[in-house]
């Protein structure tokens, strides 16, 4: 565990103003933070393939937007008929677009 004394000793030699200016220069030069990529789960991928918004996709599936959000965030998993329907939509997104337009 780091003590207050060791933190104070470390920070005593820092020039926060210069560090901030350097950080701004780095951002302007394209040198900024770590880049992360998040792989979309199957539900998100199916929705993106369909070209529908979350609200449109949920309405076409006759589910709540909240349920769709929980599936997309991985908090819940679709089961049974919903899982099967999502597989079909993933392979044939135009079908769900037709249902959404009807």
Automatic annotation (TrEMBL):
Keywords: DNA-binding, Transcription, Transcription regulation
Alphabetized Gene3D superfamilies for the sequence: lambda repressor-like DNA-binding domains
All residue ranges annotated as the HTH cro/C1-type domain in the record: 43-79
Pfam families: HTH_3
GO MF term list: DNA binding
Protein name in UniProt: Transcriptional regulator, XRE family
Organism: Thioalkalivibrio sulfidiphilus (strain HL-EbGR7)
